[in-house]
């Protein structure tokens, strides 16, 4: 069962990657855009949300900055800290990525039907607790 769960997770991840690929994004880049959609965050906060070390986030933000999707700015509350914020292009791409991911999520759920989808949500919540 455990290997079936892991295999299914990999399949779902591949589908989500494919959904954002036409936008020039990876799932990791799309995830950071989602986190920055509402408010700029420090790189430490991004690393904490993504469950990775800060050096990984730094490299990811570097790539997003090169792509013109994110810009760094000084944190007005703490001069030692840098915030990552979406650029106007980043905001537009975030909207498109969110739509693409929502469509793919719905397509996955449609394969199950409403009752199975509800059971899966409950099971995933139980496993996550």
Describe this structure in a few short sentences:
Helices cover 70% and strands 13% of the residues. It has 129 residues and is of the alpha+beta class.
Give a structural overview:
By secondary structure, the chain is α+β, with helices and mostly antiparallel strands. It has one domain: Arc Repressor Mutant, subunit A. Helices cover 70% and strands 13% of the residues. It has 6 helices and 3 strands, in the order ααβααββαα. It has helices at residues 2-20, 27-36, 43-50, 54-66, 88-112, 114-128; strands spanning 41-42, 70-75, 78-86. A 3-stranded antiparallel β-sheet has the order 1-3-2. Strand 2 (70-75) and strand 3 (78-86) form a beta hairpin. It is globular, with a radius of gyration of 17 Å.
